[in-house]
Amino acid sequence: MDKRDTLQSPADSPNRDQSIHCTACESSLQSPGRESISFLLLDQFTIPLVGCDNHLEEFCSICGLATEGSAELLNHRPAGGVHCPSCRHAPHRPHQSIIPVGGGGLAILACSTHQSDILDRFRTGLQIRHHLNSSLDAFSTNP
Ligand SMILES: [Zn+2]
Ligand SMILES: [Zn+2]
Predict the structure, then answer these.
(1) pLDDT value for 16
(2) Where in the chain are the domains?
(3) How far apart are CA 16 and CA 70, in angstroms?
(4) Rounded to a whole number, what is the distance in angstroms from the first to the last CA of the chain?
(5) Among all ligands shown, which has an atom nearest to the Cα of 85?
(6) Residues 13-35 pLDDT 10s
(7) How far is the CA of 20 from the centre of ligand 2 (A)?
(8) Which of 17, 24, 33, 121 has most Cβ atoms within 10 angstroms of its Cβ?
(9) Distance 46 CA to ligand 2 centre (A)
(10) What are the DSSP calls for 42-107, one per residue?
């Protein structure tokens, strides 16, 4: 009996999210200092972020899709500071989750509540962007 092994690896490798392909992001993540922290102003949130400019911009614009207000990126601490006391202390804590954005990765230096708030926006924004792209592009190569 001919037993054929039909194990096929999918064309799109699913393990792309695990590594950061952007050296600029990587170097900001490796040496996070006051200089390298940016702030995302989204609705009532002020979220400290670390990453390279390009991917911060991308993150900001994706989150902006998921809000009716505006998403703004600051390279300096905003005048009012960070309102949430837990977020204010978050940059000093060792554990940061790295969020894959495009080929890069950002660290969200917020408390867990606001981290999940902003991630919700990000995921919603990604879906909206995907939807926009697929309706713009009639020739979708991805089934
Ligand atoms: Zn980057
Ligand atoms: Zn917070």
Answers:
(1) 43
(2) 22-136
(3) 30
(4) 35
(5) 2
(6) 444 445 789 999 999 888 767 67
(7) 26
(8) 121
(9) 8
(10) ETTEEEEEES-HHHHHHHHHHHHHT-SS-EEEESS--TT--S-HHHHHGGGSS--PEEEETTEEEE
